[in-house]
């Protein structure tokens, strides 16, 4: 073929693709040759004739169809799918399609203005057998978000908002009259308005000024704004909540089981403001004990169809940031009416169990109650009782700020329940539950919310006592509804089995530290995982292994279809115990009461949607939590720029190694190009980097000495300088 003919056929091919692209992007619409010419930006007679010919050819091949004279639209093939877009930081994306096993690769030129998390229609134009198929976005069905956080870069008559999210591949253009009060360099929330066809960037307007980048208040608010989470209640919601009658009424007490005379107490963190669960304890004449798990009766105050209920549903969860809690419910409910404070009568929703000496539940009762908490303890105080077997609480751990002695009957209750909890826990472990006692990083903050110290929190016996009885209530409530002959719509907390591939790669990774997993079956996976988590306790690789083990797990979610809970080894599990801070628990209370009243099953579709929303909001809130910890870690490290730290290599990539500092769990990066004295190459198989000249190896899990090179508060990112291996 001559060069001229070759170019001509290439041009023809490009024209076909261009026409199909136009019709595909607006797949429901029809276009005539003039409209297509205008879209392609051509208006000479030759080009128009070529378009007319090409339309006839494409119609002949049944790729497009003529609808009415001279009007064409795309023929929908089997290559179109609904998908959710997962952007990478490199500018390309993967489309996750429910019906397909593998994700579909979308190159930057085929994104067609779609962003991370958008629900889109894609067209697969290149199906591949053993590699990722390639596709393009043909339509945006639903934007995941239209508000973004960034820094305003102001020019003379316009500006750009540079978005902080590394998965956002474009700035947003803002006209001068759409900047509001924002000044150059301010951190702002910008709302996406449109992306005109020929424009390089989308257009938007500034809807909120967050403040100066790097300032504490600005950064915490921008974390919330980044995930679309509110930081205060609208005034009408506060007013509505303040109007609610929160007094305890004799007529209401008559409708409930009165448990005010039964010994009841709460155990919570020392700084807790809302106490949403209490335990009651009494010995029965037959030698068994009766334990009540009493939960704040939020659904008594939170009525469906009210503005307050709508707001709580939208939020779906409280958000716990390093320096504050953004509650799901206004304070009048969360810290007052619904909080099971000592020496106050409260409306509660209870699960009451008669338990024998082998911790077998021989009787159960669920329903609304009225209770009276006799005492409040911090975990440290309850721990003191468990460890000493006595009720003497020393001043240094007392929340009463003085030494005092706990009543004998409460001491006996705590000690008995601790023994029961330990039995229940070991039975769970035998059933295949997985024990993630992950170390929590906490900060000591001064009055200005500056981090002055870091400490680690691990669960002790007192925490585990509460945990076991909450698990019992959650499991028994789910079984009570789920095990019925007639299916009732209910909300389960579901957790699927771990991903096999992830388990295999975890196994090869931990083998570098001399550990191993047995992947033969479900039981061996669970027990060897537990063994692994036990073996790494206190070792340098603990946090790394804990984190990677958690990543092999599926994500827990809310659903109406029960699949059981793998991590807890329960066939039925629900969330019943925290309605002050989780909306699914409120729904569980409502559904449980509905079925106790003998009413028919609720609509499954309606609750499916609510479950999906709750799971999504939970995800956003835990991302915000993680970001606030990361922010505080960077802030903490800013003040320690001259100090050398021992760290563990926690990740290895082709552009750098990640190091986690042993003392404070702050993670930062050492870029390969910054390592002095040699050029390092990435060794994928061994999770290592190797020096070309010196053959020096830095491998995942190695202990190294680092210094802070750069602490970027705005990007929440740490860069380290590598000093060398610890043993050197």
TrEMBL record:
EC number: 3.1.13.1
Catalytic reaction(s) noted: Exonucleolytic cleavage in the 3'- to 5'-direction to yield nucleoside 5'-phosphates
InterPro entries named among the record's database cross-references: CSD, CSD2, NA-bd_OB-fold, RNase_B_OB_dom, RNase_II/R, RNase_II/R_CS, RNase_II/RNase_R, RNase_R
Cytoplasm is among the record's keywords: yes
Annotated compartments: Cytoplasm
Enzyme class: hydrolase
A family per Pfam: S1
GO-annotated cellular components: cytosol
Keywords: Cytoplasm, Exonuclease, Hydrolase, Nuclease, RNA-binding
Gene Ontology biological-process annotations: mRNA catabolic process
MF annotations from Gene Ontology: exoribonuclease II activity; RNA binding
Domain S1 motif: 642-723
Primary location group: cytoplasm
HAMAP family: RNase_R
General function of this protein: 3'-5' exoribonuclease that releases 5'-nucleoside monophosphates and is involved in maturation of structured RNAs.
Family membership: Belongs to the RNR ribonuclease family. RNase R subfamily.
The name this protein goes by in its record: Ribonuclease R
Lineage, top ranks: Bacteria, Pseudomonadati, Bacteroidota, Flavobacteriia, Flavobacteriales
């Amino acid at each position: 073929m001559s060069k001229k003919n070759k170019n001509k056929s290439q041009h023809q091919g490009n024209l076909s693709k261009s026409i199909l692209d136009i019709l595909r992007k607006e797949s429901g619409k029809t276009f005539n040759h003039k409209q297509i010419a205008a879209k392609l930006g051509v208006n000479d007679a030759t080009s128009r004739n070529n378009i007319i010919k090409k339309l006839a050819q494409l119609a002949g091949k049944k790729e497009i169809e003529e609808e009415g004279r001279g009007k064409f639209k795309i023929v929908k093939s089997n290559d179109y799918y609904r998908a959710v877009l997962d952007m990478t930081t490199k500018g390309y994306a993967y489309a996750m399609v429910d019906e397909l096993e593998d994700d579909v690769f979308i190159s930057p030129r085929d994104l067609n203005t779609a962003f991370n998390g958008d629900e889109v229609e894609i067209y697969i134009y290149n199906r591949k057998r053993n590699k990722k198929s390639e596709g393009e976005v043909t339509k945006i069905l639903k934007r995941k978000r239209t508000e973004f956080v960034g820094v305003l870069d102001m020019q003379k008559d316009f500006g750009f908002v540079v978005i902080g999210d590394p998965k956002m591949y474009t700035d947003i253009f803002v006209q001068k009259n759409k900047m509001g009060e924002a000044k150059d360099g301010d951190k702002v929330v910008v709302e996406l308005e449109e992306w005109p066809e020929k424009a390089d960037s989308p257009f938007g307007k500034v809807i909120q000024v967050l403040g100066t980048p790097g300032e504490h208040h600005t950064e915490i608010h921008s974390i919330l704004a980044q995930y679309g989470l509110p930081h205060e209640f609208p005034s009408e919601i506060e007013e509505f909540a303040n109007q609610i009658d929160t007094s305890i009424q004799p007529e209401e007490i008559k409708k409930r089981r009165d448990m005010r005379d039964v010994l009841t107490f709460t155990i919570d963190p020392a700084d807790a403001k809302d106490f949403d669960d209490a335990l009651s304890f009494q010995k029965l004449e037959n030698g068994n004990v009766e334990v009540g798990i009493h939960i704040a009766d939020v659904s008594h105050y939170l009525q469906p169809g009210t503005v307050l209920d709508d707001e709580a549903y939208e939020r779906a969860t409280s958000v716990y940031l390093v320096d504050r809690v953004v509650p799901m419910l206004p304070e009048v409910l969360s810290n007052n009416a619904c909080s099971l404070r000592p020496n106050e009568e409260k409306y509660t929703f209870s699960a009451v169990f008669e338990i024998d000496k082998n911790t077998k539940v021989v009787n159960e009762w669920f329903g609304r109650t009225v209770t009276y908490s006799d005492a409040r303890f911090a975990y440290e105080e309850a721990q003191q009782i468990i460890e000493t077997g006595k009720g003497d609480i020393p001043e240094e751990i007392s929340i009463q700020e003085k030494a005092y002695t706990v009543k004998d009957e409460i001491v006996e209750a705590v000690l008995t329940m601790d023994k029961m909890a330990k039995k229940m826990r070991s039975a769970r472990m035998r059933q295949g539950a997985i024990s993630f006692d992950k170390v929590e990083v906490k900060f000591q903050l001064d009055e200005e919310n500056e981090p002055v110290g870091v400490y680690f929190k691990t669960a002790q016996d007192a925490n585990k006592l509460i945990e076991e009885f909450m698990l019992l209530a959650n499991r028994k409530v789910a079984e009570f509804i789920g095990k019925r002959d007639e299916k009732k719509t209910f909300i389960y907390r579901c957790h699927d089995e771990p991903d096999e591939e992830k388990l295999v790669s975890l196994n090869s990774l931990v083998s570098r530290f001399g550990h191993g997993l047995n992947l033969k079956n479900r039981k061996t996976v669970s027990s060897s995982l537990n063994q692994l988590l036990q073996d790494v306790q206190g070792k340098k690789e603990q946090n790394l292994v804990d984190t990677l083990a958690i990543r092999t797990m599926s994500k827990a979610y809310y659903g109406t279809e029960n699949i059981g809970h793998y991590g807890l080894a329960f066939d039925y599990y629900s969330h019943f115990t925290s309605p002050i801070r989780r909306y699914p628990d409120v729904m569980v209370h409502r559904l449980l009461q509905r079925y106790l009243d003998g009413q028919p099953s609720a609509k499954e579709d309606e609750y499916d949607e609510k479950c999906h929303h709750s799971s999504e909001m939970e995800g956003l809130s835990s991302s915000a939590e993680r970001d606030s910890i990361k922010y505080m870690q960077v802030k903490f490290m800013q003040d320690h720029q001259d100090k050398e730290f021992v760290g563990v290599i926690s990740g290895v990539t082709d552009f750098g190694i990640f190091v986690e500092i042993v003392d404070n769990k702050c993670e930062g990066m050492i870029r390969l190009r910054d390592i002095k004295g040699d050029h390092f190459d990435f060794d994928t198989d061994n999770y290592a980097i190797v020096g070309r000249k010196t053959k020096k190896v830095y491998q995942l899990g190695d202990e190294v000495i680092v210094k802070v090179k750069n602490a970027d508060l705005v990007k929440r990112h740490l860069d380290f300088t590598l000093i060398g291996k610890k043993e050197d």
